[in-house]
Amino acid sequence: MERLNVLDHPLIRSKLTRMRDARTDNETFRRLLSELTALMVYEITRDYPLRKVEVETPLERTTGEILSTSVVLVPILRAGTGMLSTVLDLIPTAKVGHIGLYRDPKTLRPVEYYCKLPPDLKEAEIILVDPMLATGGSAIAATDIIKREGGRKIRFLCLVAAPEGVKAYSTTHPDVPIYTAALDRRLNEDGYILPGLGDAGDRIFGT
Length: 207
Description:
It is built from six helices and 15 strands.
């Protein structure tokens, strides 16, 4: 069963349209990515648990609320790192893991080359981030790794998803919700999303 959530807020849709534009330069693309990530993280963390704390304002003592859960961010290298700093700005107490995968150009299957995750994943709220959900191979492999290391409460965050990737990911990991800014039309013969926004890593890093 698909657990797909398309976050179609007007600001998200507007920024994504500018990111799709081939005329958008690398600097502007990175800025829009940061802004879009912030809007999406605001939405996907809406139900995170809180605990009450006592604080002293300049005028009196009062009761407030802070996050009561550990948060772990896991970007899929390399493009996922372009979304990392924004999430840390919003959740500075979060821990960070990294999973390195690349897509074999012939088989389109993911190949793992690096993995470093924080301990104690079992009780953490985990946000797996990658700009694109194309074939689903990398996201599936990364989620496999996180679960292997004990992670249970996982949410996958991407900018653009293809129906093929959503189906493959949801079939393999039906317990993990997908959050995206857009569900695009399909993949082309090379495994790229149409209409998509090109190679996100290349457009982030100028390669």
